[in-house]
């Protein structure tokens, strides 16, 4: 077995824990696993940003009563993840989604979200979709056990990651909505940076009748 | 028998590509097309084609071949030659059916089962015949001129050649005559090397030597686009973008990482050559595979055991220092460095790992470090060359291809695994490169000499002996 990222052969130690088990399919080697920092410590209850004592972070105070109830993220953003995401999203190495699979599913199950809820992956504009060939949020949503719905459409705009904070916060809503929603919604996206995109989407979903909107994202930028 | 086996083995990449794109493809066009210059010799993806691609395809100016083919149960990527099945992954492409893409070359843009590669099949570009292209007016040593003649012969005879020349033999200058011949015949030439640093270093030298030839340098991160230059300087990875392009291919430092370790690179080299082409390997430290071919006379070889200034190679001195693991800067190294500082000598210090290099930089005042993960590397190397700093700490990335005129060289922990024989010979070859200062110190600090160190010293001594004999 080889690491999906660095292609080093994965050699596992034999110990009493795994002696009588069938070998598990490992995706990453130990070295690469260590580079991915799960968010475990105290964090802002609304947006998962790491804070000293789990208090509300400054940004969330400023958001105040926002349509997005809360965001849960999996990893802290670092250079390693930046490289992985770049290769996955921009270079189009689709299979790298498996790197996140185990943690992403485990943390989702721990959330105990009601079976009623639907997953809404943040869509790409048509131009961007044609460029990449796949939607990264959809790839993430596909790993989760709930139903997926696509009520949102996105109008073409500049890449978020190329904008400054001020530009991001003052953009118009890039989404339009096509259907009404009656179930609680879990938005799925890859990176939560300022929360602006997700708030835009949440606002529309709330207006379309969703009883509650939260988001589940891979990385807290 | 063995020779035939080796020949068969060496031809495997060529056969693999010929299976999808026959080499004796008969091109039906004799009129000129405006795209010939920018497209010929390239391996293109859909989005790199001009807007009127459909008419070009209909008129067979472009041939399309599938990017990934499936044979029995195995996939093969026709762009990078990859056949390792774990580098193929499926993805929901929407083309219907199980779509598989190649992960090995995904950095150069994803190709999958439903995508195609395009090769120009219209008339090939005629490059200008540049007479007397070489503006270099230096003089070659006796050894150099022998090698230079052999290179010219190889260019004329479209054959293969190994130039086995010690570090500092003046390989670049030996090429000039051969290149001049190639340009005079309007041939397209590529000089490829595994290292981007080497490309950056060579570029100004070739530009001043061949002022009337269009030269393009391509490496990861370079901004230049090849719109049909006659002379391409590139890293070997860039050859993935070419097919049936070059009449003359020179591979510099053919034994350097990753060329020998990654079959993608020899594959793309074989493809980038025209069916009848010259292939010249340059190295100071050929690996076993090339040495075997040379020994069996499968690969004609010319040997240059002497440096261009005629002085022998500096022989490395071993210096035991058993506090290597305990201290960041061992005592022996410290005293050596102080000595050098007093003598006002500039020092290039090799460390086995990047962390070690960084630690050393922290402990030695007035030093800078350059390694592969350093974004500011080019600038630091330039500062060392311009004598702004006296001590540069580096890793094996600077082991070859770079020339600093008058320096001493030290290797810390020379028995470390990263320093194999070739690396150590190359490192020792950094010293004493200028005729004004032909001897430099080469010191290996070690805590128990490794085979690689002993072999490296032996081979340097052997070269010096050969040079002495030949010089008489």
UniProtKB/TrEMBL annotation, chain A:
It comes from the Bacteria. GO terms for molecular function: glycosyltransferase activity. Residues 176-220 form the Phosphoribosyltransferase domain. Keywords: Glycosyltransferase, Transferase. It holds the Pfam family DZR_2. The keyword Signal does not apply. Residues 3-60 form the Double zinc ribbon domain. Gene3D superfamilies: 3.40.50.2020. The keyword Translocase does not apply. InterPro entries: ComF/GntX_DNA_util-trans, DZR_2, PRTase-like, PRTase_dom. Belongs to the ComF/GntX family. This is Phosphoribosyltransferase.
Automatic annotation (TrEMBL), chain B:
PROSITE patterns: HELICASE_ATP_BIND_1, HELICASE_CTER. Residues 332-472 form the Helicase C-terminal domain. GO terms for molecular function: 3'-5' DNA helicase activity; ATP binding; DNA binding; hydrolase activity. GO terms for biological process: DNA recombination; DNA replication initiation; double-strand break repair. Keywords: ATP-binding, DNA-binding, Nucleotide-binding. SMART domains: DEXDc (SM00487), HELICc (SM00490). Residues 152-304 form the Helicase ATP-binding domain. Pfam families: Helicase_C, ResIII. The keyword DNA-binding applies. InterPro entries: Helicase/UvrB_N, Helicase_ATP-bd, Helicase_C-like, P-loop_NTPase. It comes from the Bacteria. The keyword ATP-binding applies. PANTHER family: COMF OPERON PROTEIN 1, PRIMOSOMAL PROTEIN N. This is Competence protein.
């Amino acid at each position: 077995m080889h690491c999906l990222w660095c292609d080093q052969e994965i050699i596992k130690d034999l110990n009493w824990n795994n002696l009588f088990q069938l070998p598990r399919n490992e995706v990453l080697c130990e070295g690469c696993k260590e580079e991915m920092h799960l968010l475990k410590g105290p964090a802002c209850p609304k947006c998962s940003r790491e804070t000293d004592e789990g208090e509300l972070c400054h940004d969330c105070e400023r958001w105040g009563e926002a349509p997005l109830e809360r965001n849960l993220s999996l990893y802290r953003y670092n250079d390693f993840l930046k490289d992985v995401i770049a290769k996955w999203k921009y270079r189009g190495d689709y299979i790298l989604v498996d790197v996140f699979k185990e943690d992403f599913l485990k943390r989702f199950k721990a959330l105990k979200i009601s079976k009623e809820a639907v997953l809404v992956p943040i869509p790409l504009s048509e131009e961007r979709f044609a460029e990449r060939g796949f939607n990264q949020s959809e790839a993430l949503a596909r790993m989760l056990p709930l139903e997926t719905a696509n009520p949102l459409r996105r109008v073409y705009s500049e890449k978020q990651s190329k904008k400054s904070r001020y530009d991001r916060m003052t953009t118009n809503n890039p989404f339009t909505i096509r259907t009404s929603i009656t179930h609680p919604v879990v938005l799925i996206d890859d990176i939560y940076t300022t929360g602006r995109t997700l708030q835009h989407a949440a606002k529309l979903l709330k207006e379309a009748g969703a009883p509650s909107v939260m988001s589940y994202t891979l990385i807290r930028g | 028998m063995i020779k035939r086996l080796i020949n068969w083995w060496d031809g495997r990449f060529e056969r693999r590509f010929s299976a999808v794109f026959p080499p004796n493809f008969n091109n039906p066009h004799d009129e000129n097309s405006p795209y010939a210059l920018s497209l010929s010799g390239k391996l293109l993806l859909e989005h790199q084609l001009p807007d009127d691609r459909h008419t070009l395809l209909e008129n067979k100016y472009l041939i399309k071949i599938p990017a990934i083919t499936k044979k029995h149960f195995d996939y093969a990527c026709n762009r990078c030659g990859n056949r390792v099945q774990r580098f193929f992954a499926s993805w929901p492409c929407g083309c219907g059916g199980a779509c598989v893409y190649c992960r090995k070359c995904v950095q150069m843009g994803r190709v999958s089962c439903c995508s195609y590669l395009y090769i120009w099949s219209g008339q090939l570009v005629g490059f200008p015949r540049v007479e007397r292209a070489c503006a270099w007016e230096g003089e070659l040593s006796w050894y150099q001129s022998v090698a230079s003649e052999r290179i010219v012969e190889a260019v004329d005879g479209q054959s293969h050649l190994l130039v086995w020349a010690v570090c500092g033999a003046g390989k670049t200058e030996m090429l000039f005559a051969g290149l001049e011949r190639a340009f005079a015949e309007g041939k397209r030439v590529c000089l490829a090397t595994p290292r981007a640093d080497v490309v950056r270093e060579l570029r100004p030298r070739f530009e001043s030597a061949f002022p009337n030839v269009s030269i393009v340098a391509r490496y990861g991160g370079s901004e230049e686009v090849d719109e049909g230059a006659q002379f391409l300087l590139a890293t070997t990875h860039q050859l993935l973008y070419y097919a049936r392009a070059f009449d003359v291919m020179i591979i510099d430092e053919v034994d350097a990482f990753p060329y020998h370790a990654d079959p993608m690179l020899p594959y793309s080299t074989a493809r980038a050559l025209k069916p009848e082409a010259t292939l010249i390997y340059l190295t100071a430290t050929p690996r076993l595979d090339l040495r075997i071919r040379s020994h069996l006379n499968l690969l004609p070889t010319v040997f240059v055991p002497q440096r261009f200034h005629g002085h022998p190679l500096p022989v490395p001195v071993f210096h035991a220092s058993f506090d290597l693991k305990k201290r960041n800067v061992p005592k022996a190294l410290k005293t050596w460095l102080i000595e050098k500082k007093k003598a006002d000598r500039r020092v290039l210090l090799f460390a086995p790992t990047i962390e070690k290099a960084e630690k050393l930089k922290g402990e030695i005042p007035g030093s800078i470090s350059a390694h592969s993960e350093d974004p500011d590397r080019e600038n630091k190397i330039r500062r060392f060359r311009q004598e702004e700093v006296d001590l540069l700490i580096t890793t094996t990335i600077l082991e070859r291809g770079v020339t600093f005129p008058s320096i001493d060289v030290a290797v810390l922990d020379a028995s470390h695994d990263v320093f194999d024989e070739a690396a150590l010979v190359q490192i020792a070859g950094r010293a004493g490169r200028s005729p004004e200062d032909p001897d430099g110190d080469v010191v290996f600090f070690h805590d128990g000499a490794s085979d690689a160190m002993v072999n490296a010293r032996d081979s340097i001594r052997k070269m010096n002996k050969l040079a002495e004999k030949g010089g008489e």
